[in-house]
Amino acid sequence: MSRKVLLIEDEPNITEAIRFLLTREGWQVETHAEGTDAVDVIRATQPDLVILDVMLPGKSGMDILRDLRDRDEMRDLPVLMLTARGQSRDRDMAEKAGVSRFMTKPFSNTEVLTAVRDLHAQASRT
Amino acid sequence: MATLNVLILVCLGYVVLLFGVAFAADRLAATGRSTWLRSPLVYTLSLSIYCTAWTFYGAVGYAARSGLEFVTIYLGPTLVMIGWWWGLRKLVRVGRSQRVTSIADLISSRYGKSNTLAICVTILAVLGVTPYIALQLQSITLSFSIFAEADPSGIYNEGASVFWVAAGLAVFAILFGTRNLDANERHHGVVTAVAIEAVVKLLALLAVGIFVVWGIAGGIGPTMARIDASEIGTWGVDRGRWAAITFLSAAAFVCLPRMFQVMVVENDDERHLRAAAWAFPLYLLLMSLFVVPIAVVGLDLMPEGTNPDLFVLTIPLAQGQEGLAMFSFLGGFSSATSMVIVAAMALSTMVSNHIVMPIWLSSQGGGVSVSGDVRDIVLFSRRVSIAVIMALGYFYYRLSGGGAALASIGLIAFAGIAQILPALVGGLFWRGATRIGALAGLTVGFALWVYTLLLPGMGGSFMSEAVMTYGPLGLGWLRPQALFGIDGIDPMVHSVMWSLSLNTAAFCIGSLASFPSPLERLQGAQFVNVFDHSAGPRGWTGSVAQSEDLMIMSQRILGAREAQEFFHAEAERQGGRGYLPEPTPTFLERLERELSGSVGAATAHAMIGQIVGGSSVSVEDLLAVADESAQLLEYSGQLEEKSSELSHTARKLREANEKLTQISLQKDAFLSQVSHELRTPMTSIRAFSEILRDTEGLQPEEQTRYAAIIHDEALRLTRLLDDLLDLSVLENGQVNLNMGDGSLREVLDRAISAALTGSDRPLRVRRHRGSERIPLHTDLDRLGQVFINLIANAQKYCDAAEPSLTISVHDVGGQVVVDFIDNGSGIPADAQSMIFEKFARVGSDKAGGAGLGLAICREIMQRLGGEVSYLAGQEGGAFRVSLPLAYKQAAQ
User: Fold this and answer.
1) Do the domain assignments include residue B85?
2) Is there a domain that residue A12 lies in?
3) Is residue B346 part of a domain?
4) Nearest Cα to B332, choosing from B25, B42, B2, B61?
5) What pLDDT, on the 0 to 100 scale, is given for residue B835?
6) Is residue A17 part of a domain?
7) Which of B385, B469, B692, B753 could cysteine-pair with B351, CB 3.0–4.6 Å?
8) How many structural domains comprise chain B?
9) Between residues A51 and B354, which one has the greater pLDDT?
10) B385/B530 Cα distance (integer angstroms)
11) Total beta-carbon pairs less than 8 A apart between chain A and chain B
12) In this predicted model, what pLDDT tens digit does every residue of B15-70 receive, in sequence order?
């Protein structure tokens, strides 16, 4: 069973680090660096999990998340959100928008891996 | 021969009939089977109390003396009914929603339930209406005397007959006007009797008219010929008097207490106004139809010196038509009695509610409202008031001797009553109208009316000939009928013009200059916007009133059964049971309105205030109003001063606050940005260092690559911190400029080599080195930093296939200008304005740093006394640096 993760992040070095980590875990890692068409890309990719940055060019991660949650087929898609803006306001906003897990940059690699494993386990159980 | 005895018998029989009608109507209303009593027809007929004996007898006399001018008396109300019915509708709506009992109550209620105002209006009304009542008594007496002259028995005694007429009318008014106290039970008996009388007087006048036209003159044609031949046909129209009297009669129609009583207080249904709007003018038209023929025929027929006011009676008598004369007498009698009864009722309500009750309440001390039987007191005080008002009319008649022509007394009364108009109309349509303004207007108008019309009209004993001719104390410009030296106007027009214009002016100025109390403002809003909300908050706030006390008080005013029903209904409305509702503001307000139907708004407010406590108006307040108004004037002056000071301070505070908010917002945004810019490289550093540490069996080339990423990101971090520090120093003005001498060419040389070394992206730089030989005295390193930034930007962002940058130097208007123009696609127009802001980035390009470079350039150039700007309209990205040339000029 192939597990697919879609990473939406505009910082190439961070993308590379996460790709390295998850590939070693056996994930198929797709990446995208634009906010504007992110929702379409997610629909086309059909990932098991999305890792989403907040400050993206064109469209913010918050808006992308809201759009996802408005669509029936993606209401339950696990979304791990990463942001470099570490304010509690952002966390509140994300939770209101329906985020599955919220994480502040810089993160530890183990944290990310644990979160991805948890979210995937939850999703496969239901 | 008709004997006086027969006439008296007929009169008594007629009065008994009216008693019967009134009694039956009251009974009907009580049993609820009175739908026809509440018809628009009865309402319209009841409005006809506007036509008193003055119009019944006087109109003919008026026409005989002054031609067509009598029409103005009918014209005013007609115009009001047709052209201003929407205003009347508002008046009726306000009156009903506020449970208003009289026009004094309405004015008082509108201006913060001020009892001072109520007293003013009451006094004005009593003064204006008393002569009018006397006039009615006079007309009855005169008409009796006509029959007495024809009666050989000679038993007629004029003085006695007036007395008995007055007493009889007082009894009627007391019996049917003060039967009950509750305003929601209107005076159906009286109104029905008035309607019957309206029919009688109309039919009587029409009968006399028809007799005159067809019985004497011989048809319409001959009548018209007579009119043409008479003086009436030739009398011209005095435009000033026409306008003034039309206006006066219109104003009186709205302001007269008796009109207010039938139009507003007794109104059962607002929609009746719609029918009355055409039916009442029709009634007036019929009433005026035969006035001119009767006058003309009377002047022809009757001997010289016959009183034309009584033509309606004397013509049929002279023609031997005793039955018709008797009918005509009954018409005049109806006109007089209906007016006197309703006027006495309306005035007694005002006198009792606004003068007698407050005095009585205060004489009883604080706890009255729950200790005495107020209901009886109110009824008693109203009955006494009716008797007193009738006595006043009687004495006025006896004192004045009944000599003056009927019409002039009527007009004087109209002019007095019209002084209420500004406060009334202003109160209905202008939220800014205040109590002070209303008081000022009423006082000024009242004083001028007394001085210019009432006193001169009363003859020499009240105002001496000397004052009339030379003015008081010889001051010519104060002559009562030529104020300010304006002479030669009809005294009536003169008085109306001055009193009403100065009244209105005082009302407006007083309103604008004073500050309304909160209660006034609330009431003002309720009146002016009565169609928006039929009920709203009026001042009672959550209180600890004891419902039981309110109940006991209400029982004494409304009667036990009424009060219990009301309380029970209120309790149910609140969702409870029993007889004691919670004293919520809504309940208190409704109770106040209920009570004000019986005792007037001001008194009801005061009575509830005594129980509820913490009220906004107390009985003591009501009586100390004279004091209070003086204080208020002073206080409002102070307030105005303070309020302008306050608003100034408030504006400054608001500005400061806006600035602070803006700064704080900017600061938040900046910190959030800095946090983001710092965390991003740190994320890569942390992630890759953990990979290097934790991953076993990593390829050597992977190790090298990841270490390089860590190194690059660390440099990025350092650069960011340097920029931030730099910017912060520049922005705070803590930077020390290191001024030195050099040439522009050297600075550019160094900047280009610094920007291009260590970069793998090619950029071709074009220069005109010849033009760059300009000496500078400035901080050469800082200027170089700006150039490096601009060149590096071109190198990073220029998207041409073969990127090139042209640096050109000009001398523009005493400044040295250096342009940096590349051959890329430039910066989009909508982004140009913000590229110099911190953290501004165009598009999604990640090549640059944190977006602080241009912000730093702007700060540096500002310090150096120059400027850096974006040059719009060029082919590619284009920046212009300009520096003042002061040094260069000085050096040459």
Assistant:
1) yes
2) yes
3) yes
4) B61
5) 80
6) yes
7) B385
8) 4
9) A51
10) 32
11) 67
12) 888 888 888 877 777 676 656 667 888 888 888 888 888 778 878 888 887 777 77
Q: Are residue B225 and residue B145 in the same domain, yes or no?
A: yes
Confidence of residue B211 (pLDDT cuts 50, 70, 90): confident
Q: Is B393 domain-assigned?
A: yes
Share of chain B above pLDDT 90, in %: 2
Contact B687 A21 (CB under 8 A): yes
Give the tens place of pLDDT for each residue, B73-109.
888 888 888 888 788 888 888 887 777 778 888 888 8
Lowest model confidence (mean pLDDT) among B359-368, B566-575, B715-724, B812-821:
B359-368
Q: Which of helix, strand or coil describes residue B93?
A: helix
Longest Cα–Cα distance of chain A, Å, equals 38
pLDDT at A86 over 70: no
The residue of chain B with its CA nearest to that of A33 is B844
The whole-angstrom distance between A63's CA and the closest CA on chain B is 17
Q: Residues A2-38: pLDDT tens digits? A: 789 999 998 899 999 999 999 998 999 999 998 889 9
- Report yes or no on A126 lying in a domain: no
CATH of the domain at A84: 3.40.50.2300
Question: Is the same domain home to B654 and B566?
Answer: no
Does residue B100 sit in the same domain as residue B180? Answer: yes
Q: What is the pLDDT of residues B360-391, one digit of tens each?
A: 777 765 544 444 566 677 778 888 888 888 88
What is the CATH number for B807? 3.30.565.10
Residue A105 to chain B, least CA–CA distance (Å)? 6
ipTM of the complex model: 0.93
| Alpha-carbon distance values, B142 to B57, B264, B312, B314, B378 (Å) | 10, 33, 12, 11, 36
**Residue numbers in B near A7 (CB within 8 A):** none
Same domain, residue pair B846 and B757: yes
A109 and B691: CB-CB below 8 Å?
A: yes
Kindly state whether residues B566 and B697 are assigned to the same domain: no
Tokens of residue B290, six digits: 């035969």
Among B695, B728, B761, where does a domain finish?
Answer: B728
In a domain, B437, yes or no: no
| Contact partners, residue B89, CB within 8 Å, separation at least 6 | B270, B273
- One-letter amino acid identity for B400? S
B353 pLDDT exceeds 70? yes
Query: What's the full length of chain A, in residues?
Result: 126
CA–CA distance, B321 with B334 (Å, rounded to integer): 20
- Domain stop point among B702, B728, B754: B728
Q: Is the dihedral of CA B712, B718, B722, B727 positive or negative?
A: positive
Assess whether B131 and B176 both reside in one domain.
yes
Six-digit token pair at B230? 């008479």
- Residue A47 has a pLDDT of 92
Tell me which residue range forms the domain holding B707: 627-728
Total tally of structural domains belonging to chain A: 1
Cα of A125 to nearest chain B Cα, Å: 30
Token pair listed for B313: 């009676």
Contact (CB, 8 A) for B108 and B400: no
SS3 percent helix, strand, coil of chain B, rounded to 5, is 70, 5, 25
Q: Which of B684, B687, B846 lies closest to A10 in CB terms?
A: B846
Least confident of B798-807, B809-818, B826-835: B826-835
Say which amino acid occupies A22: L
Look up the domain containing A52 and give its range: 3-121
A109 Cβ under 8 Å from any chain B Cβ = yes
Claim to verify: residue B651 and residue B768 sit in the same structural domain: no
pLDDT digits (tens, 9 = 90+) for B859-887: 888 888 888 988 887 878 889 998 887 55
In the sheet where A101-104 sits, what is the strand order? A27-32, A3-8, A49-53, A79-83, A101-104
Rounded Cα distance, B816 and B358, in Å: 89
Structure tokens, B29:
């209303």
Q: Give residue B580's region: left, alpha or beta (phi > 0; psi -120 to 50).
A: beta
Encoded tokens for B498: 């001055």
Question: Are B691 and A84 inside 8 Å of each other by CB?
Answer: no
Query: CATH number of the domain that B722 lies in?
Result: 1.10.287.130
